[in-house]
Amino acid sequence: MSALLEITNLSKSFGGIKAVNDVSMTVERGQICSVIGPNGAGKTTLFNMISGVLRPSAGKIIFDGQDTTNMKPWKYAAAGVGRTFQNLALFSQGTVIENILVGRHVHMKSNALDAAIFWGRARREEMAARQRAEEIVDFLEIEEIRDMPVGGLSYGLQKRVELGRALACDPKILLLDEIVAGMNHEESEDIARFVLDIREELGIPILMVEHDMKIVMDISDYIHVINFGSKIASGTPDEIKANPDVIKAYLGESEGAAK
Ligand SMILES: Nc1ncnc2c1ncn2[C@@H]1O[C@H](COP(=O)(O)OP(=O)(O)OP(=O)(O)O)[C@@H](O)[C@H]1O
């Protein structure tokens, strides 16, 4: 079976800056895959192209057999690409359950007119959405805070809610952009456990950009390394840890960061 995500010769330029330069990589079904690299390497730009936030300057993205390279940005969630963002992207006044329901609306076909004419269908959709949101609340162990406004929650819990909202669109792949950045050790460990559970119990493959090397090495099946926009290595955690090009790239930034 072909890879779930296949990126071929992908590039993105901003004026004279080649933020991503001719990158090719795949994510297999069932995999936890990480993209790592020093600051400014082009990781977020790569993510933004895969999730439709940015249009590539060149190259091709095939997701689940479909060419998504130039797909309209609002179609990505329905196509099965779920993601979290580097900075929190939640409605702080809304409750936990309301924020998760927002992620679900991508699967709801009824609009206001439908709701008036086909009351039954709209109601069934709403009930199914609520049930799925409750399942996600259970899965992420956030029952106790389900009715609290997210603005008052700790950063770690807000990130968990953001994960819940991404899961609510029933993604075929989940993109996590530095999900543990700014978390304390315990919160990071919790999120790492949920990421593993998402793959094991929900069967959703993960592609993550992450600076926390412990998490990357602990939970990734496969790692791609980007430096100055170009891919310099791919391999298992053990292969990446021993790769001289990777060690050199990281030593340029901070002593031993890839170890
Ligand atoms: N919208 C933009 N306009 C101009 N330059 C940009 C833009 N977005 C990113 N860049 C540049 O592209 C390069 C790659 O940035 P990017 O944010 O993708 O790196 P990164 O690997 O995610 O970095 P970090 O780990 O610090 O988040 C950087 O030189 C950055 O300044």
Automatic annotation (TrEMBL):
ABC transporter domain boundaries? 5-253
Q: Where is the signal peptide?
A: none
Keywords, sorted A to Z: ATP-binding, Nucleotide-binding, Transport
Residue ranges of the TM segments: none
Q: Which CDD domains match?
A: ABC_Mj1267_LivG_branched
Q: Which GO terms describe its cellular component?
A: plasma membrane
InterPro entries according to UniProt: AAA+_ATPase (IPR003593), ABC_AA/LPS_Transport (IPR051120), ABC_transporter-like_ATP-bd (IPR003439), BCA_ABC_TP_C (IPR032823), P-loop_NTPase (IPR027417)
Tell me what this protein is called.
Branched-chain amino acid transport system ATP-binding protein
